[in-house]
Amino acid sequence: MEKFTLGVIGAGTMGNGIAQLGAQKGMKVILWDMNEELVSKGFDRISATLSKLVKREKITDAQKEEMLSNIKTTSKLEDLQNVSVVIEAIVENLEVKQDVFRQLDNILAPEAIIATNTSSLSITSIAEATGRQERVAGMHFFNPAPVMKLVEVVRGYKTSDETVSTLMDLAKQMGKEAIEVKKDTPGFIVNRVMLPQFIEAIRLVEEGVASPEDVDKAVKLGLNYPMGPFELQDFAGVDIGLHVMEYFHDEYKSERYAPPMALKRLIRAGRLGRKTGAGWYDYE
Ligand code: NAD
Question: Where's the 3-hydroxyacyl-CoA dehydrogenase NAD binding domain (predicted)?
């Protein structure tokens, strides 16, 4: 029987993780990025990650080689023409995603499914670029994709039940727990729950109620979360948090999601989190 082939669009952080995961689970994967340099850089990163697993004796050298042999890289979208499911993980920009979806719609077989890993954009708006809106959905992985257990499968306005069930099955084959998000909504479930917590945590600090350290400690010990809201913002990028708040604020037109001033101040000072060596905390 022919093996399932998965297309992955974008060889950045998330695309690499998703491609690696597919390859680890024995799927044939075609990984695309804009040019050969980007896509081979992505492949090298996957290889380096698998080497670490070999070192830690999680997989053997032979298994690593087999996993890598499951991945084919390309910078030509046409090479994805026989793929039955594509997962897109390129920049978080609606026009750019729509442009790629439009091209994929012309290249793929009519029955193929195109999923997007977007964290915040409307699935319906992305799907509108195609003539197959019932076969477009969100498939939201978390970072790092090979490790994090959850996948949110998100319906656009016209996504069919069949598409949802194929993607739920795919997530399962990838060793994930999938949940269905029944309506296209800002932040889906996880970010919708998490964002108000970030905002409340920042407001507590702004009001002088507690320090970031104590808020983090309270949340970790009182709610049994592995990371506090300030640690998590620094880990994910403080600027990403602001970007998502601004998006929610704009969509809901509600002060509930107004980005706190302390957050803007931090970003203007170039403190974007771990990636810049400082955010709510100092790392250097
Ligand atoms: P990244 O910056 O690591 O990778 C983005 C990729 O997009 C790169 O491979 C880049 O070459 C490609 N790209 C850039 N401009 C392009 C263009 N004009 N046309 C085609 N490709 C282009 O980003 P990432 O963190 O992997 O995020 C990718 C997607 O996954 C985004 O939609 C993001 O919201 C979502 N996401 C990210 C995370 C996360 O924690 N990083 C988690 C869940 C979902």
Answer: 6-184
